[in-house]
Amino acid sequence: MNPEKDFAPLTPNIVRALNDKLYEKRKVAALEIEKLVREFVAQNNTVQIKHVIQTLSQEFALSQHPHSRKGGLIGLAACSIALGKDSGLYLKELIEPVLTCFNDADSRLRYYACEALYNIVKVARGAVLPHFNVLFDGLSKLAADPDPNVKSGSELLDRLLKDIVTESNKFDLVGFIPLLRERIYSNNQYARQFIISWILVLESVPDINLLDYLPEILDGLFQILGDNGKEIRKMCEVVLGEFLKEIKKNPSSVKFAEMANILVIHCQTTDDLIQLTAMCWMREFIQLAGRVMLPYSSGILTAVLPCLAYDDRKKSIKEVANVCNQSLMKLVTPEDDEPDEPKPVVQKQAEPNPDDSSAKQEGAASGGPDGSCDSSFSSGISVFPPASTERAPVTLHLDGIVQVLSCHLSNMAIGMMTRIAVLKWLYHLYIKTPRKMFRHTDSLFPTLLQTLSDESDEVILKDLEVLAEIASSPAGQMDDPGPLDGPDLRVSHSELQVPTPGRAGLLKTPGTKGLECSPSTPTMNSYFYKFMINLLKRFSSERKLLEVRGGFIIRGLGAHETTHKAACFWQLCLLLNAENIFHSMADILLREEDLKFASTMVHTLNTILLTSTELFQLRNQLKDLKTPESQNLFCCLYRSWCHNPVTTVSLCFLTQNYRHAYDLIQKFGDLEVTVDFLTEVDKLVQLIECPIFTYLRLQLLDVKNNPYLIKALYGLLMLLPQSSAFQLLSHRLQCVPNPELLQTGDGVKAAPKSQKADSPSIDYAELLQHFERVQKKHLEVRHQRSGRGDHLDRRVVL
């Protein structure tokens, strides 16, 4: 510093003392400056006051010499003390040079700067509030200062500033929020602690409504909640807890929609505390805001659904997530469905709406534009549409929701409880908003069919409920199944088609009605037959499904354990109309090109028909064959049952067509007798002894009117080798009274009460010819396989 420079009105002694390296001499100079300024105040000489402050600032506080800077700081503090209440007029000139020294490399100088600013603020009190942002900015930096003395000095200044803010009603919260939003993302733990302490103070001031600006800082608060320091995490928990209490007290003034996306992000974090806290907030938001949260459903589901599969280690998160899921589901009501329309177009691109951006941006939450289920988010948090300030009626758009549900359902790595929750959601949406949901049915169908291979019985049951609802919903009747490809309805692995009325190839037997349902059965929609076709296609392509799954049991006294396929059909019979299912399956299998698969499926369906207690009414309907509908069903089943000779006989036994059963058994002599064939005959004998065929065994007492029943049973006996089944059937036939009455010569009038061969509606000769044609095809296929060397010859020499 130039000693000859004029620093008037500062005397040379004051200037010399301010530049001294000793603190005591600088302090003496400060007292002289205070005395000098007081005189100027008394004289109301503002020019000289400004000149003194400017000199101390420019020539000392901002000097290159460290001792001069220290002198300038203490001199500025002395000016503020001398000015007293008038210091507010010069605060900008007093504060700015001091704040500049906060960045000084010398820790001692930073400490003196804290001390100087403390004195300035202490004198000015509320007058410093217009300069709060620059003070806060400087303090936030000192809060992380490595020097303990500087940090201690900054804490004193911080407490003083908090007291001033608390006692004042002129705090500019609007101007402060941008700075708070910026500083809240600091990674320094001391800076974070400083930020949290200030938020607590502002939240406690009655005149400051920080809740209005919570969306601006909520994301930063959740990030601070993940700090490594326990004390900081605890402080942040307290802050978030206070905010949540305030939200519960004043839900009408809360900007729920603007914070929904923030919660979605933090509900997916790997930090347990953050995730649990965010999930608790989400639960309260859904319950308090109600339908306001519906536009964010896809993001919420992306966050909540995976949590439902957590184990006991994250039990708390799982329980809260379950409440969120249930509460969100209750928000969807029938009013969310679109009104009745003549014929909405399937898979039509949705018209632009205010939530279109939501569907696209929610893709970030549900996996992005490619539909993947990556739950990570790109930079930024605005992945949802901005909320309107007005509580306008909420319109539910399902595009994003269905995408998220489909994505989670198709991901086999996701836990069982999550998949069950997804299926419950789909079922709920089909019940509440069927017309909207049927726009997405074609895209959901493959995933729902794939889910039938799930390892969990509970998942399969829920999946079948969804498929059954799709197949039976009246809303599905409005959708056009689309044109058919190809000239006929032949079912192959590469092409499965939906038949329409009037197409060739349906039953031609007199009295039949093709695929038409009987008047007593509910009409299924266009998806019913699609479902049946695709279900059979899946079973045909996944032959190991039987071996992998075997957990369901068909109830009945025989306690026959069935395959996974059989269980699916059995459950479908509970959910849909059994007659429709068997009618459609039989018609599809009639055109199945894979004869081995057709035989296996016919055997499966026959087992269900004969053993399931839930199909009691259907069996009674087939027993009598008195109505055109029952005769039509019998003919339809018979033609497909011909793929398996033994099941065809069992169907004739069920329908009391004993003469035709006898005629069929007579044809067995022309068939290739294999181990599999004899095994099925053995099972049929066992089945005859079950309660299902009690009526058949009782009819053995009426030998006169049931001669062909007895002859058919003797025919089965003659087919069997000397085995336990042979002994069982032989003992049964020994109980038949008056065996000599088995003669059926010309003198015997064959007019059995229960015999249905005389029914004019059924052409049994044509059915027998159909049986022979089908069995001829099977024989040709077996010979072809044997010629290729891939068929194991299991013929038996008797």
Describe the protein in words.
The protein is rod-shaped and about 150 Å long. Residues 341-390, 479-522, 550-566, 746-758 and 789-798 have low confidence and may be disordered. It is 60% helix and 0% strand. The longest helix is centred in the last third of the chain and has 25 residues, at 764-788. It is mainly α. This is Protein VAC14 homolog. It comes from Tursiops truncatus (Atlantic bottle-nosed dolphin). Keywords: Endoplasmic reticulum, Endosome, Membrane, Microsome, Repeat. Pfam families: Vac14_Fab1_bd, Vac14_Fig4_bd.
Describe the structure using short key phrases:
798 residues; mainly alpha; Leucine-rich Repeat Variant; 0% strand; rod-shaped
